[in-house]
Amino acid sequence: MTNTDDILTVSGLNVAYGESKALFDIAMDVRACQVVACVGRNGAGKSTLLKSIAGFLKPTSGTIISDGASLVGMSAFAVAGKGIKYIPQDKKVFSDLTVQENLELGSYASQDYDWAPVFDYFPKLKILIDRKAGHLSGGERQMLMIGRAILGGPKLLLVDEPTEGLAPSIVMHLRDVFKELAKKTALVVVEQNLPLVCAIADKVYALKEGRIMAELTGRASITPEACEQYL
Amino acid sequence: MISMQLLTSGVIFGLSLGSIFFLMTIGLSLCFGLMRIISLDQLLYYSVGAYITFSVSALLGNIWLGVLAGAIVAGASALVVERIVFRRIYDRDLPFTMITSFGVLIGGVGVIKYFWGLVPRPVGEPIVARVDILGTDIPVYRLVIVAIAALVYIGIWLFLNRTIIGKAIRAGTEDVEHVEGLGINVYRLFTITFVIAGALSGVAGGLYAPLIMVDPNMGLDVLAFVFMVVIIGGLGSIKGTLISSFLVGQVVSIGSLVYAPLAQMAPFAIMLLILLIKPTGLFGSQMLKR
Amino acid sequence: MAAMSFVRWWWGLLLAFALVALVRVFLPLPFANEIIIFSIYTMGCNYLLGRIGLISFGQPAYLAVGAYAAAFYLFYFGNNPYVGILIGIAAGFLVSLAIGPLFVRLRGDYFALVNLALSVIIFYLMQKVLAGITHGDNGLWFLTNLASTPVLDLSRPDQFFIFGFLVAFVIWAFFKYLDDSIFGACCLATKLNEDKVKFLGYSSFNIRLTAFVIANTTTALAGAMYAVYLGFVSPEITSPARAADPVVVTILGGVGTLYGPLVGSIVYTGMKDVLSKVFGNWELVIGFVLVFIMLAGEKGIWGSLQPLLEKMVLRVTGKTAERGGSGQ
Which of B170, B171, B181 is closest, CB to CB, to A80? Predict the structure, then answer.
């Protein structure tokens, strides 16, 4: 069932690392401006899922469709070019380059040189603009990664554990940022922070050992306890 | 005791030798930093540059045109090899790409032999003028080589720090996947880097050709030295190769004044020493994985 | 049952060497001798690359160490070829033991380049620096010096072949034994995942060092054999142009396989012989062949044949397959 509103439809996705299978028959769909969360314990396959969608891993079988086109087999930069941006969990930015240069690369890739929205979400980046990215704190790096990724107005952001290791104040800030972003961009967020997930998600997929255990929709049913159940 | 004259010429010779090393090793450093390959075939583009310089200068009577042509043909060869061979194997591990690049180098030597034969050929020096520095007679050509290397260094610096492609390459040496994730076509970056490396190697060969004879094995002959320079400086660091190129250049040059045979071995000794203290060279990065 | 596995362990070796003996029957003696020595030479490189994952472009260095050690003895001191060979082996052992601890610490890429540098240095040493004792490019000639030895007269090529054949057989049995031993498993494990090996309590440094010494001593043995066989040693064996030989043969035969070096040497020497008569440009061919093999899957000749043959044997005998790797 293809809905013209669908930003992303995944079905029957199987991914393996060599001989070792990581994802089994994953099915998932994301609508425009929807916030979808993937929760699960370490090693459940959440990052693997995002990487496969982003084009960094080749699935062994299954389909990934966005706007009528299949993403499987596309190189990662081509997927990004289609407006699907991946933000990895390693909080890595280009340390030797300044914040400005990091953003310049994002602009170069997306051809979007309007940084106003980025500074709207993250005013701190404007202050840090000339600082070498290697000297940023974890939270500042996460902000830079997200800021870089929203250049070009992506239709889907794949965010991998954004709040991991961050101070609560920053986590709150990010929560508000995601809520704002969701007005224009669909989000798939992988998180272990269940309260955060439940505050922003429209839909939650619970992953366990490479399989989707449950799909929770509707504000009412998305609670930390409900998620825990399936993990 | 070495006289002042001898020392001066030794230093200048060392600078010009270091310049040649440097031109070759920038490319090697970049290729390693960005693509994580050890491109032994750069020695082939060095030879190609030298041979084209020989042929073009013999034809047209002008060495500089020869060097230019050498750089272009070397770059073009690099492009062809990158497209046909390396494109398919970037994801393979290092020994694999090393052996493959070695195969390209050997095969390329064969191609050179096919077109130019076995006999070593001389290439005329473009500038026979000499200038007096500190009481010593120094060939101007050697100084020109140093000047060209300096210009190249500035050019590369500007490229890497002031152009967006250069910044993308620098970012790529840190993490290629992140660059790709932004939406930048990293394969195009690879090609650009590889071709630049090839062209620079060609320039090195072309410039060096008048000082030595061109022969099919010239690439293999300097292979070890070039890589000793790279190891001492540390794989992936341009600053490192700059320093080690000139260090090795001086050691070989001034060492030859003291005791010629040992001078060739000195870089090896230095390399072992440095590796004892820093197993990745002076400025080499610790990480190997992307 | 013990008898069965004894036979099974040995029968591959016996078959392989029976085939090599056949080669001797059909092909000229110099060719056969060359193959024997060359394959021992390649075995070192094959082992390092296939089992430890270390690529060495510098095997000619150890070849030269063994060859020149034997040559010095035979030129200056004595004339017993057996002693010469033993000295070559000892030299190889000592040099690799001395250098090993530094080299083996290095990352794979540095290791390869450093070994290459070593072979160039040895080349210079023998060609220029020590030309006083090595006679530089003229080389050391001692063919007439070689004494006739009892049992097998090594100064005679046909008897040398028998000697070489026996030595090769012992070497192969040794490496097969290594493969099957715990040490062999450690080597392979280190290649695949060094960290895990360390977690298990093994020292990957010691594993690598041991393998390094074994491989290079083997190479030195080949060098000493060359010296005795040719009665002459010159720096040419370690010239930069020859650095490719062991790597090419290793890949050609099939890296990591037990019989790869044998197959590789036969094909390589044969090709070289045939092609250099027809087509003077040897490098062209070997370069393209190497690139082709790498792009086509890097399995090499024996590396591709071996699984096919194993399947055939399975079907014929109906037995369950042995653990792969050392196969036939």
Answer: B181
For C298, the closest chain B residue by CA position comes to B96
Q: What is the DSSP string of chain A?
A: ---TTEEEEEEEEEEEETTEEEEEEEEEEEETT-EEEEEE-TTSSHHHHHHHHHTSS--SEEEEEETTEE-TT--HHHHHHTTEEEE-TT----TTSBHHHHHHHHHHHHT----HHHHHH-HHHHHTTTSBGGGS-HHHHHHHHHHHHHTT--SEEEEE-TTTT--HHHHHHHHHHHHHHTTTSEEEEEES-HHHHHHH-SEEEEEETTEEEEEEESGGG--HHHHHHH-
Q: Is A58 on the interface with B (CB under 8 A)?
A: no
- Taking contacts as CB-CB distances below 8 angstroms, the residues of chain B near A54 are 181
The answer to whether residue A173 sits within a structural domain is: yes
- Percent over 90 (pLDDT), chain C: 11
Kindly state whether residue A216 falls inside one of the protein's structural domains.
Answer: yes
Q: What tens digit of pLDDT does each residue of C118-139 get? A: 888 888 888 877 777 777 778 8
Residues 179 through 218 of chain A touching chain B, CB cutoff 8 Å: none
Q: Domain spans of chain C?
A: 33-240
By CA distance, what is A50's nearest residue in B? B181
Residue A3: per-residue pLDDT: 47
For residue A1, is it within any domain?
Answer: no
What's the pLDDT tens digit per position in C221-242?
A: 999 998 888 888 888 888 766 7
Q: What is the ipTM of this complex?
A: 0.89
Q: Which residues of B touch C300 (CB under 8 A)?
A: none
Nearest CA in chain A to B162: A101
pLDDT (mean) for B147-157:
94
The whole domain housing A219 covers 6-230
Q: How far apart are the CA of C69 and the nearest CA of chain B, in angstroms?
A: 20
